Amino acid sequence: MALSRVPGEDELYVGGIFTLSRKNTLADTGITHVISVLKYDFKDFEDWEKYEHLSIEVDDVEDENLLGEFERSGSWIEEGLRKGKDDHKGSVLVHCAMGRSRSVTIVIAYLLRRYPQHTVDSALALVREAREMAEPNDGFMEQLHLYKEMGCPHDIDSQPKYQRWLYQKEVGLALAAGMAPDTVRFEDEQVQEESREGKQVELRCRKCRRTLATSPYLINHLPKPVVPPQQSSTGPIASLDRVLPPQHTACTHHFLQPLSWMRAELEQGLLSGRLECPNVKCNAKLGQYIWQGMKCSCGVWICPAFSLQKGRVDEVVLRAEPAQVPGSRPKAGGIRSPPDSKSRRFEKM
Q1: Could you give the CA distance from residue 118 to residue 193 in angstroms, rounded to a whole number?
Q2: Where is the composition biased (Basic and acidic residues) (predicted)?
Q3: CATH superfamily, region 3-158
Q4: 198 SS3 class
């Protein structure tokens, strides 16, 4: 399969690197622009000057950052399709080594950007209509979903979710090397997004009542469903319903995002340590942090883990979950911010 035309109104093609050696095929499809999504020296290809060329040098590995290229590649494809040669519309070929992962990812990102009605799955299905082998790796699929979740913005670099994603990659690399990250991203010092709806709570030190965190900085985690064991065929028929063990409300820890009151401890560069109340007159031990992660009492693994023991903090409800009226939409409201923050009102992470 040399190259495949993506179904639709655009003259957009996807293929592998050997497509470039098929001059007749490129001429027949009227290719005017080529995006190469791989690391390669193209000096051996003849007539290379015929094409407008964009090179994106990435490997086909899950931790490669292709998301940061989506705006550049998307706008370049749009321009290439709009303007070819001699006032005719152009035809764009996006290729990698096999036309399976990297190039398909760039094409899907363009479809999401150009046609907002598409989801990641529907865009992939469209490409597969012409190229059944299309299969972005799991890391690229995650990046596509994040891109769609952000609304396919033109200014990807300024997006809080993208910045958080980049930071998580840095943390992962540091932990893989057995070290704590060089820098710590304190979430209450970052630009926040829209306010969360529903129940809002505040965690306070049980000893001195100092506010420690509010809802946007809590990590909600749910235990995995457990299937009850199958009973003997001679006994009563076992329930087929998947049930949750009754331990989530009995979790012994609250898990948080890193907050600025933890600065003195976290900037020591240690992999683990204690978390104490930021009130200097209190200094009660509240919990711990472990960059490599820890397993909650409910069985869910949290990594990295910044945890407060439930027995040492109080959970105060600031706004209860509103009763839902059929057909109505819940209203967003303000919440209290944790201490040592620059703003007294925060929005959703």
Answers
A1: 24
A2: 339-349
A3: Protein tyrosine phosphatase superfamily (3.90.190.10)
A4: coil
**Closest by alpha carbon to 137, among 166, 93, 103, 172?**
103
Which pair of structure tokens corresponds to residue 25? 């095929």
- Give, for all 349 residues of the chain, the pLDDT tens digit: 689 999 999 999 999 998 888 888 889 999 999 999 999 887 777 777 888 999 999 999 999 999 999 999 999 999 999 986 666 789 999 999 999 999 999 999 999 999 999 999 999 999 999 999 999 999 999 999 999 999 999 999 999 999 999 999 999 999 999 999 999 999 999 877 655 566 789 999 999 999 999 999 999 877 655 555 444 434 333 333 333 344 345 689 999 999 999 999 999 999 999 999 999 999 999 999 999 999 988 888 999 999 999 999 999 998 766 555 555 544 444 434 555 544 433 333 3
C-alpha span between 102 and 58 (Å, rounded): 8
Helices marked H in the chain:
23-28, 70-82, 102-114, 120-130, 138-149, 160-176, 263-266
Sequence ranges of the domains in the chain: 3-158, 187-228+236-319
Q: Which of 96, 205, 277, 298 is catalytic?
A: 96
Label the pairing between strands 33-36 and 92-95.
parallel
96 is catalytic: yes
Decide if 297 contacts 311 (C-beta within 8 A): no
136 residue type, one letter: P
